[in-house]
């Protein structure tokens, strides 16, 4: 299988320091110097061994995350003007009417 690393982030390496079966869709978050968390990836495949799906975060193997930055323009364009609706889920509070971007004095996510 060909992997285009322009659109993938790999994480893990040391035993016990990565994702597991059932974690797909989970976030990879990086904190900047100010402590702000940035979503940089969405888990596509954990680091389990192919023949033993219950062995997770295997030493020397890596989880593969879809690089969010590669799809940010698509997501923002698709969501432009979209309203959050929660007809079938237990919402805690109604969504805000407008969704401001990050403050002008705060840098964007790391490259």
UniProtKB/TrEMBL annotation:
One of its GO terms (molecular function) is serine-type endopeptidase activity. GO terms for biological process: proteolysis. PROSITE patterns: TRYPSIN_DOM. It is found in: Secreted. It comes from the Eukaryota. GO terms for cellular component: extracellular space. Coiled coil: none annotated. It holds the Pfam family Trypsin. InterPro entries: Peptidase_S1_PA (IPR009003), Peptidase_S1_PA_chymotrypsin (IPR043504), Serine_Proteases_S1 (IPR050127), Trypsin_dom (IPR001254). Residues 1-80 form the Peptidase S1 domain. Gene3D superfamilies: Trypsin-like serine proteases. Keywords: Hydrolase, Protease, Secreted. PANTHER family: SRCR DOMAIN-CONTAINING PROTEIN, TRYPSIN-RELATED. This is Peptidase S1 domain-containing protein. It comes from Cryptomonas curvata.
């Amino acid at each position: 299988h060909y992997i285009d690393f322009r659109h993938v982030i790999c994480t893990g390496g040391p035993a016990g320091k990565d994702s597991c079966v059932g974690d797909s869709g989970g976030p990879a978050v990086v904190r900047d110097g100010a402590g702000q968390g940035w979503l940089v990836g969405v888990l596509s495949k954990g680091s389990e061994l192919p023949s033993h799906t219950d062995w997770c975060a295997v030493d020397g193997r890596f989880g593969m995350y879809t690089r969010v930055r590669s799809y940010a323009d698509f997501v923002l364009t698709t969501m432009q003007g979209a309203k959050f609706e929660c007809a079938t889920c237990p919402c805690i509070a109604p969504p805000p009417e407008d969704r401001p971007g990050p403050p002008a004095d705060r840098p964007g996510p790391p490259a």
